[in-house]
Design a protein that fits this description.
Helices cover 69% and strands 0% of the residues. It is mainly alpha-helical and 245 residues long.
């Protein structure tokens, strides 16, 4: 039977450039069972629900808007940039990307959610995926030169595993959507059957968001969603909360 070290060595030696192994890495990192803490987040949806500003009918529209104007310009863009920096071995650039993404998150709970899930992802990916990019990034985080945001950690993990940037961004955006819809289920804003309809209908929006994220530069990083930021601020001060964000 293989030891944990044997498995880690085999993972880090996996061939780069996509293919079946890249698909398997994407499936593993975006699986709802991956213990990054995503299940504790509603990505702002609970704040909207508490304010009675979202309904089962408008929830899909809200998710599409967040993809286009929040997650796409911020996290997806940072993931693409981090993937490129990790692939090129540009660690100073990687730290700069992480710092910039963290600074664009205006609410305390969003910053905490990003770094908590990011550091958890980094810790597990170092053991399960392995590779020099993850080790170098871990040093940056440990030295407090990089905050350890989830999107950046994901970008480094995908690059370390040889997953192409387009596939990496697409996978992480879909993971965000499934997490958001999962929160909608727990908040009774959808049911299991309709959730699947919503996810499939979002495919064109995800494709659009991926294409835009892949061509942005660091200067373009950051979304503009003032209402979502206000809802997050309200949620942070709510007397009772089901989710951390």
């Amino acid at each position: 039977m293989d030891t944990t070290e044997d498995v880690r060595t085999a993972a880090s030696a996996a061939p780069a450039g996509g293919g079946l192994d890249a698909l398997l890495v994407c499936l593993q990192l975006t699986d709802s069972a991956f213990p990054s803490g995503f299940y504790t987040l509603s990505h702002g949806l609970e704040g909207y629900a508490q304010a009675k500003a979202v309904t089962p009918d408008t929830m899909p529209e809200l998710l599409a808007d967040l993809l286009r104007h929040s997650v796409g310009p911020s996290d997806a863009t940072a993931l693409a940039l981090a993937h490129r920096a990790a692939r090129d071995g540009d660690w100073e650039r990687l730290a700069e990307i992480d710092q910039r993404l963290h600074a664009t998150k205006l609410n305390r709970e969003l910053r905490l959610a990003a770094t908590r899930t990011g550091r958890q992802l980094l810790d597990i990916a170092r053991e399960s995926v392995g590779g020099e990019p993850l080790e170098q990034y871990a040093v940056l985080v440990a030295d407090k030169r990089a905050p350890g945001c989830q999107a950046v950690a994901a970008g480094v993990a995908y690059a370390s595993a040889g997953v192409p940037a387009e596939q990496a961004v697409t996978s992480d955006l879909f993971a965000f959507c499934t997490s958001f819809v999962g929160a909608a289920l727990r908040l009774r804003l959808t049911d299991h059957r309709r959730a699947q309809v919503v996810l499939r209908a979002l495919a064109p929006v995800i494709e659009e968001t991926v294409r835009a994220a892949l061509v942005r530069e660091l200067e373009d990083l950051g979304g503009c969603v003032p209402v979502a930021d206000a809802m997050s601020g309200r949620h942070e001060r709510a007397e009772a909360r089901l989710f951390a964000s």
